[in-house]
Amino acid sequence: MSKLRKYTLYHNGKNDKWNLCDDKSNKTVKSFKSKEVATAGGVLKKVLGKDGGSVKIKKLDGKFQEERTYPKSKDPKESRG
User: Distance between CA atoms of 6 and 68, rounded to whole angstroms?
Assistant: First the structure.
């Protein structure tokens, strides 16, 4: 099985947007006006495309909130989530 790309969704205080960042390249893939817009039904899945990936979602204070895998079929079996 191929390794999933890893991403982080976090709040950028400089421009007051939520950025989806590729953890490997440290580059912003897409910016959103709010976390609600980014996490709404299917938005992250569409941005990640057919290859999918694992997205760590942070709270406004920068602390870890949750992790989501797209598509769900690529979620590791040993994952509790």
Answer: 10
Q: What would the pLDDT profile of 28-63 be if each residue is shown by its tens digit?
A: 999 999 999 999 988 999 999 988 999 999 999 999
pLDDT one-digit tens code per residue, 63-72:
999 999 987 7
Q: How many domains does the chain have?
A: 1
SS3 content of the chain, % helix, strand, coil (to 5): 15, 40, 45
- 31, 19 Cβ separation under 8 angstroms: yes
Task: Indicate the residue type of 33.
Answer: K
For the entire predicted model, the pTM comes to 0.86
Rounded Cα–Cα distance for residues 62 and 39 (Å): 16
Residue 19 lies in a domain: yes
